[in-house]
Automatic annotation (TrEMBL):
Annotated protein name in UniProt: FprA family A-type flavoprotein
Record's keyword annotation contains Flavoprotein: yes
Transmembrane segments: none
Family per similarity comment: In the N-terminal section; belongs to the zinc metallo-hydrolase group 3 family.
Alphabetical list of PANTHER family matching this protein: ANAEROBIC NITRIC OXIDE REDUCTASE FLAVORUBREDOXIN (PTHR43717:SF1)
Cofactor dependence: FMN
Stored InterPro entries: Flavodoxin/NO_synth (IPR008254), Flavodoxin_CS (IPR001226), Flavoprotein-like_sf (IPR029039), Metallo-B-lactamas (IPR001279), ODP_dom (IPR045761), RibonucZ/Hydroxyglut_hydro (IPR036866), Rubredoxin-O_OxRdtase (IPR016440)
Organism per entry: Caldichromatium japonicum
Length: 422
């Protein structure tokens, strides 16, 4: 029998004995952090844990929801009972009510991840504040109840941690396992269908950091979790293990490259009159002539961006061929590049090439963007005016060979004669 407890009357909601939801609902929100769509609004989940020797608050709410938060808090505890304030993550949607809470409960100790100090300073505009830095394994006792911290950086900021209430098996997971979905019925077995929001949230918030998600799961999976209390969206009391398993699936690499010992180079291009296409084919031929490299060639005119993002996530190198039109690279190239913020491309090899009519800005612009995304751009781009000559196509081929050498670690060592004039 499902308990249809709802957060409708401004009071706290007990989610398990002695643990209360004291957060706020924001049904009118339509975008979060500017870039994320929130068709159902969101919630800022905050929790209160009552132990035999005091109370802990886990996260607060966005500042303009403070009144609701304090009203719910006061419905179950006095400020003088608060011994610990835990911020699992310092982004303002969870720390907005912190300054006022600290004024109301000056005796409380603040627990944040040891990585949170610079962010706390930024939030408080230079005011200094005493806090307890936590590590994985740090505990806080509230008499008969124990909070244990797990460092889970980048889920979703560097300072993120999770907090585990050992006696009840409650994982206060911060943004992890959360989603932007606003429903006063609060629990996953009572709210509307939020699967889309859960997957969308993972794709946009967690996916760029999936290596960190896997590390966090290594800490979380051995725990006897009976309930997940995230900082947004439904509280996961029904089969929380399913959501943990789903994060494992979503964070695992996709289809493996059949030739696992080969490096992968993806070449994307667009071509108005065939010149950049000819260059792309020459780059591909050069790279493919080297052993240990698997090369794929894609015309962006015939492809959707999303599947390419998945491919790029698994690739070792990407090269973009763009003509210069009106002093710029062409829009599909920018569309694909702008989608790469959803994945981790740091350290991959990037490259650019293309034909042009009179100025040729596209290649350096794309190279700058690749560097901005923290790819390495070790081989200078090649350009050809209008129709590439045989010599320019040979330069493209050599460009492909050099990319392959960098990919496979077969860069020729340069010997430097220290006596030679410079
Ligand atoms: Fe919900 Fe990353 O803040």
């Amino acid at each position: 029998m499902v308990t249809r407890t709802a957060a409708t009357d401004g009071a706290a909601v007990e989610i398990t004995p002695g643990v209360f939801w004291i957060g706020a609902l924001d049904p009118g929100l339509r975008s979060f952090d500017i870039i994320l769509k929130t068709a159902n609004g969101t919630s800022y989940n905050s929790y209160l844990v009552r132990g035999s020797e005091g109370v802990a608050i886990i996260d607060t709410v966005k500042e303009n929801f403070s009144m609701t938060f304090f009203r719910r808090l006061q419905s179950v505890a006095g400020y003088d009972e608060i011994r610990a304030i835990v911020l699992n993550h310092l982004e303002p949607d969870h720390s907005g009510a912190l300054p006022e809470l600290l004024k109301r409960a000056p005796q409380a100790r603040l627990y944040i991840s040891s990585r949170g100090a610079p962010m706390l300073k930024g939030l408080l505009h230079g005011d200094t504040l005493a806090y307890e830095p936590t590590q994985t394994g740090t505990t806080v006792r509230l008499g008969d109840r124990t909070l244990r911290f797990l460092q889970t950086p980048f889920l979703h900021w560097p300072d993120t941690q999770c907090t585990f209430l050992e006696e009840e098996g409650v994982l206060f997971s911060g943004d992890a396992f959360g989603c932007h979905f606003c429903d006063a019925r609060l629990f996953n077995d009572a709210v509307g269908d939020f699967r889309f929001s859960f997957e969308y949230y993972y794709a946009h918030i967690m996916r760029p950091f999936r290596a960190h998600v896997l590390e966090a799961l290594d800490l979380i999976e051995p725990l006897p979790v009976r309930l997940i209390a995230p900082s947004h969206g439904p509280i996961l009391r029904d089969a929380p293990e399913r959501y943990i398993a789903r994060y494992r699936e979503l964070s695992a690499p996709g289809l493996k490259n059949e030739a696992a010992d080969e490096k992968t180079l993806l070449i994307f291009y667009l071509s108005a009159y065939g010149s950049t296409r000819a260059m792309a084919e020459a780059v591909a031929a050069g790279a493919q002539s080297m052993s240990g490299v698997r090369v794929s060639l894609y015309d962006l005119e015939g492809g959707e961006v999303a599947p390419f993002v998945d491919l790029i996530e698994e690739a070792d190198a990407i090269a973009f061929g763009s003509p210069t039109i009106n002093g710029d690279a062409v829009k599909p190239v920018w569309d694909l590049l702008s989608s790469l913020t959803a994945i981790n491309v740091k350290g991959k090899i990037g490259a650019a090439f293309g034909s042009y009519g009179w100025s040729g800005e596209a290649v350096p612009m794309v190279e700058d963007r690749l560097r901005g995304l923290k790819l390495r751009v070790p081989v200078p781009g090649v350009r050809a005016r209008l129709i590439p000559t045989p010599a320019e196509l040979e330069a493209c081929r050599e460009f492909g060979v050099n990319l392959a050498r960098h990919l496979t670690g077969r860069i020729e060592k340069r010997s430097i004669d220290m006596a030679a004039p410079t």
